[in-house]
Specification:
Structural class: alpha+beta
Strand order of the largest sheet: 3-4-5-6
Radius of gyration: 23 Å
Number of strands: 6
Order of helices and strands: HHHEEEEEE
Length: 268
């Protein structure tokens, strides 16, 4: 007498499901790390593109950076329009404005136009009346070559780099990741109390603007473009040891690190 094919028993089926679940639990962290690594690589690639753009711009302007103004006027120029309008003709690919981590997270969030990012994995956004740009990178405002002594409330003029420095260029940030469209960090700036949302007090000029670029998108670090056009990952704590402006004191006492930063590496 022929017997039909034997079917799985309920216990056998549960065992198979359990094995698959165990395998998935083992593989998921690896897959997650692979995704994060790919996003980090994409972020570095974006900043390398920005490096080529800045290098071409500086070469075409006798070694000098942008003025920090648009059409030599400060009227009607807000939300970082001073650099967005200047660099827009060179950076029409919108993907290069966004770290892949911020870009992916952005699509599932609703952020009011004209506001900073609300979460480390969010991008900033400006009103449609000013281009409607979205981005997650922040230029160092101290690179400007302003025709005025105080630019957008930040000065004095002797602090501005104005052009590519003659030395220590690998320590001078040109662009970094950030919460908002621009930043003028100072050595005495304090880190934010929390790292899971935009620091409110950093949105005013000369008020702890280092917080604008101290954003945790890559496990205690972020990616930066430097004045030698190199790109590398930098620990958030290390931001206070970079030469943001001409007289930035890289040997100033470390700030008191808040709890969310305490376990981060000093150097990457």
């Amino acid at each position: 007498m022929k017997h039909g094919k034997r079917a799985f028993t309920l216990i056998e089926l549960l065992v198979v499901i359990a094995i698959i679940a165990i395998l998935m639990s083992i593989l998921m962290p690896t897959l997650r790390r692979a995704r994060e690594q790919a996003r980090g690589t994409g972020c570095l690639a974006n900043l390398r593109q920005w490096g080529l753009i800045f290098a071409m711009y500086v070469d075409d302007n006798n070694g000098r950076f942008y003025s920090g103004l648009v059409k030599n006027t400060e009227q009607g120029v807000g939300n970082g329009e001073w650099w967005r309008e200047t660099m827009r003709p060179f950076s029409k690919d919108k993907k290069m404005w966004l770290c892949p981590s911020a870009a992916k997270n952005r699509s599932s969030r609703s952020v009011t136009a004209g506001t900073a990012a609300s979460d480390p994995l969010d991008a900033w956004k400006v009103p449609a009346s000013q281009g409607g740009d979205e981005g997650s990178y922040t230029p160092n405002g101290w690179m400007c070559n302003p025709p005025v002594e105080v630019l957008w409330g930040r000065g004095p003029g002797k602090e501005y780099w104005r052009r590519v420095p003659d030395r220590n260029v690998s320590q001078v940030p040109v662009m970094s990741e950030g919460w908002w469209v621009d930043a003028w960090p100072r050595a005495g700036d304090k880190p934010a109390d929390r790292g899971d949302r935009t620091p409110v007090n950093c949105m005013a000029a000369n008020n702890n603007e280092m917080q604008r670029v101290c954003v945790n998108r890559h496990h205690g670090a972020q990616n930066c473009l430097f004045a030698d056009w190199s790109v590398r990952k930098v620990s958030l704590k290390q931001l206070w040891r970079l030469r943001w402006h001409r007289n930035f004191d890289i040997n100033a006492p470390e700030p008191v690190w808040p709890g969310w930063m305490a376990s981060f590496r000093d150097v990457y």
